[in-house]
Structure prediction request, 332 residues.
Amino acid sequence: MKKLLFAASATALTVLACSSVEPAAPVFFDDDAGTATKTKDAGEQLTCPGCTGCCNKGKCEPGTDNAACGAGGGFCDVCGGAAKCSAGQCVLACDPSTCAGCCDAKGECQTGTAVAACGSGGVACATCGGTQQCVGNQCIDSSCKASCGTGCCTAAGCQPGNKADACGTGGNACTSCGTLACVGGTCNVDPTKKWTLTVLSAVIPSQTKAGYAWDILGGLPDGKVRGYSGLTGTDKSKALHTDTTKSIADTLTPAWTDTNVLFNTAGGVTAAELLGGKLRLDVLDDDVASDDYVGGCVQTLTAADFAGTLKDVKCPADTEVAVTIRYRITAK
Prediction:
């Protein structure tokens, strides 16, 4: 956090008031570094014309380092947590917490729908052999569908399709319901369970909607995510439950590994508080005086979102900027 220091004696103030001499540029002190740095007026941008990497307070950086990642002359980002700088972007390592598909031999996330890279849940991609096809992110025998009319198909053949770990009908690929119940070959939300929401990461644009840096020194935001459940309108103060992650300092791509489970202290919330547009997630910039709104939106959920799968939501710009939030809902 930066503090503005006005250090002037009464005599100096009198001289300034009675002369035409313009006052010196304000001096800002960096609490963390303990050094003073002169800067432009608040809100004025420090740009790097012609920079192919990223811009760090007026200095062009290559944009390939975790501490200064970026491209195209935009503001440098600090890749936090498990994120690494790759091709000018902070990306997370491929694992079950970051990939809804499967992880290939290079450690990159694939959709998991190809014969040569089939799978889901962030596990290692499988290669479907012989007559197998990749259907529903699973390798299944291509002949199963024709002979399995009422059940579902796995690599082991036709299954009844009425179990939570192999749910489905019509000879389609069996689905693992995870924390959901299998009813009539379909995974549905268990109304008796309570749920929490784990925020994994977010993506914040480099500038505010007005085109300024998030920090008066050209710095990056301290992002955190706030959740509201049980909303019946636009008034957030009337939410049945509100919870917030911890903030991640100075990054456009905050990634959380702890203190990121929303509604946990409330003992979880029912699906009724989350379904039907009753859940909203907002990204905020953590400041001492008050948190600045960055962006957010109401979440549209289906039963499939309660199976523990990753959900990437891009909230469109409103009074502020568009943001992306990655999270998963899990049973309490």
Observations:
- Confidence is low (pLDDT under 50) at residues 1-44.
